[in-house]
């Protein structure tokens, strides 16, 4: 290894070289990943694993080459780039090239196994893919069928258990080689504070919303008990995970019809409106694009429409889990999604375009700054726009005839709470589990048992059937085999309400938060664009301040948004046990 540079200009020049090489490798790796994700074969799997190993090897090389450099005396942005280099990837490998190849092959193989997962439910003749199984969880109300489909999908994890154990070992070794305690500590180091302080910060936010979640949980449990009976749903214990309308019980809006207030639905059903107009997948994306354009942002490039994958191809295996890409790190934006005409996918499309607009806004920065303020910001932007999809907005764009009166508000708010508030403890549990796994606090033989302990503790849910040790249930959630950190979604669910409150104010909207929309507001758009354009060049409190005027993440906006619902839930819960 060459001598570490000492003068500030030398350090800057070294970082420039590192960035140039890593950008080239990231582009090459991104292309290999795109081909793999949209056309899974043994060859595309090997090529993607190879490109990622190369990226990791060179990143580790540059981290080691720069680690003797002392940050004092360096200019602020050089110092920040130096710090971000070690945090650029979600996975590092030991420096032995055989081990980095093994590690990236394991991750590619685990995501491939997830994408190829199929189950033939009882009474069916054909194996169904995850989307078809999710649809059953969402719409079917026969508990035996739900339990069958739920268990059938969860068995996809079994084949991953051995690979996952080795991935933990190698990923930890990689993180330790560059000075982190373990891979979980590396993930927690991305938030401009000490890893332990971040864990405390997450707990603080959870405590802000936990009583509200408990209230929603108690209400939903009592309604499900009324529907499914006392033998299936306990009065004061955890809710069976297969009855909540979602494979992972992470969002509960699918059971809205079962739990809707007796006097008020949501006033409209977006899925029905979209289906009634024979909306195509491309038109679904056009709706979302027009929203961003209404804020003063540019339309998507024509290459987006030529290169994106919007529907599941019939003739090949793909990774259907939605994602947003920027292949050249400037403007080769794309999404990859298997769009269905539903309100859930309508929201997910807004989510994905939020990623694309972020990527484009920071494309002018040095490579190490081309990321969001922290990863919760990336996940929150599209969802923030999604919160502006109000009834009034749907009327304005001609999807809805007339806006429901304000007595439909409870229904609207309950629907949103099932989507957003129900998610919080799931968002927390996934990485609470992985942090413990990486730290060695959970042994491989306890993977599934501890997974359910945490799901029960945070979410108050339980699996419908006893889970054998041979099952690896965490593997049945995309982000675990794919090595995508998950705490970002917990943060995003809190931040998006904080962003929504600030941007609707900037837009001059008045009235309750849940009826306010930033559609058409250049004032909101300018504020948003200025924040996105900072990328990762500043510590995240600066970006938060640019967007909201506040420097702390804060769940009070979420609580404000739902205040009328909370009052109503507390009334409904009189005499009903709360907690589990
Ligand atoms: O994975 C996603 C996005 C892609 S970043 C579709 N989400 C999480 C999930 O599906 O589990 C969005 C919400 C949570
Ligand atoms: Zn996302």
**Number of helices, counting only DSSP H or I runs of 4 residues or more:** 24
Cofactors, ions and other ligands in the entry: L-captopril, zinc ion
Spatial strand order of the main sheet: 1-4
What portion of residues is helical? 55-70%
Number of strands: 4
Which outline best applies?
globular
Poorly predicted regions are: none
Order of helices and strands: HHHHHHHHHEHHHHEEHHHHHHEHHHHH
Using the CA coordinates, give the radius of gyration.
23 Å
Largest sheet: number of strands, sense, barrel closure:
2 strands, parallel
Estimated share of beta-strand residues: under 5%
Mean pLDDT: 96
Secondary structure layout:
Layout: H1 8-38, H2 42-66, H3 76-85, H4 97-116, H5 130-139, H6 143-154, H7 161-177, H8 183-188, H9 195-228, E1 239-240, H10 256-259, H11 270-276, H12 281-294, H13 302-307, E2 323-326, E3 333-336, H14 343-361, H15 375-387, H16 391-396, H17 409-420, H18 423-438, H19 447-459, E4 461-462, H20 487-506, H21 522-532, H22 540-548, H23 556-561, H24 563-572
The protein binds L-captopril and zinc ion (ZN).
């Amino acid at each position: 290894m060459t001598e570490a540079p000492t003068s500030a200009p030398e350090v800057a020049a070294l970082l420039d070289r590192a960035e140039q090489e890593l950008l080239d490798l990231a582009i090459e790796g991104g292309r290999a990943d795109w081909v793999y994700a949209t056309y899974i074969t043994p060859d595309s799997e090997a090529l993607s694993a190879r490109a990622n190993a190369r990226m990791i090897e060179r990143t580790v090389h540059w981290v080691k080459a720069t680690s003797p450099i002392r940050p004092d005396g360096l200019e602020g942005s050089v110092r920040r780039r130096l710090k971000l280099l070690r945090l650029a990837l979600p996975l590092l490998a030991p420096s032995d090239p055989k081990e980095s190849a093994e590690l990236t092959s394991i991750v590619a193989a685990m995501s491939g196994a997830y994408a190829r997962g199929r189950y033939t439910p009882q009474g069916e003749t054909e194996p169904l893919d995850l989307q078809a199984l999710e649809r059953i969880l969402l719409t079917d109300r026969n508990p035996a069928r739900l339990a069958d489909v739920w268990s059938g999908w969860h068995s996809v994890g079994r084949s991953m258990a051995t690979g996952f154990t080795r991935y933990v070992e190698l990923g930890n070794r990689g993180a330790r080689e560059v000075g982190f305690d373990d891979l979980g500590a590396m993930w927690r180091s991305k938030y401009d504070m000490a890893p332990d302080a971040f864990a405390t910060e997450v707990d603080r936010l959870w405590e802000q919303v936990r009583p509200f979640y408990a209230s929603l949980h108690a209400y939903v449990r009592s309604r499900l008990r009324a529907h499914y009976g006392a033998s299936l749903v306990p009065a004061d214990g955890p809710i069976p995970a297969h009855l909540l309308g979602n494979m992972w019980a992470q969002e509960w809006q699918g059971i809205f019809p079962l739990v809707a207030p007796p006097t008020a639905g949501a006033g409209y059903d977006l899925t029905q409106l979209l289906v009634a107009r024979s909306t195509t997948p491309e038109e679904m994306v056009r709706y979302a694009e027009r929203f961003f354009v209404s804020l003063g942002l540019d339309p998507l490039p024509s290459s987006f429409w030529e290169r994106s994958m919007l529907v599941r191809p019939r003739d090949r295996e793909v990774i259907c889990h939605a994602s947003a890409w920027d292949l050249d790190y400037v403007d080769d934006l794309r999404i990859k999604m298997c769009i269905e005409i539903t309100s859930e996918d309508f929201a997910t499309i807004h989510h994905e375009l939020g990623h694309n607009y972020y990527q484009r806004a920071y494309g002018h920065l040095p490579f190490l700054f081309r990321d969001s303020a922290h990863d919760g910001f990336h996940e929150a932007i599209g969802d923030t726009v999604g919160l502006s999809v109000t009834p009034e907005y749907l009327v304005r764009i001609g999807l809805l005839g007339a806006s429901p009166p304000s007595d439909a508000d409870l229904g609207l708010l309950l629907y949103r709470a099932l989507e957003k508030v129900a998610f919080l403890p799931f968002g927390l549990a996934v990485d609470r589990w992985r942090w413990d796994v990486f730290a060695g606090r959970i042994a491989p033989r306890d993977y599934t048992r501890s997974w359910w302990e945490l799901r029960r503790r945070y979410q108050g849910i339980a699996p419908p059937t006893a889970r054998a040790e041979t099952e690896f249930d965490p593997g049945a959630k995309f982000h675990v085999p794919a090595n995508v950190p998950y705490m970002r979604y917990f943060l995003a669910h809190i931040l998006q309400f904080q962003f929504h409150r600030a941007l609707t104010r900037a837009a001059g909207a008045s009235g309750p938060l849940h009826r306010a929309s930033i559609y058409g507001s250049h004032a909101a758009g300018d504020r948003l664009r200025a924040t996105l354009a900072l990328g990762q060049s500043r510590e995240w409190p600066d970006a938060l301040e640019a967007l909201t005027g506040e420097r702390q993440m804060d769940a009070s906006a979420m609580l404000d948004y739902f205040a009328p619902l909370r009052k109503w839930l507390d009334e409904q819960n009189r005499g009903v046990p709360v907690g589990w």
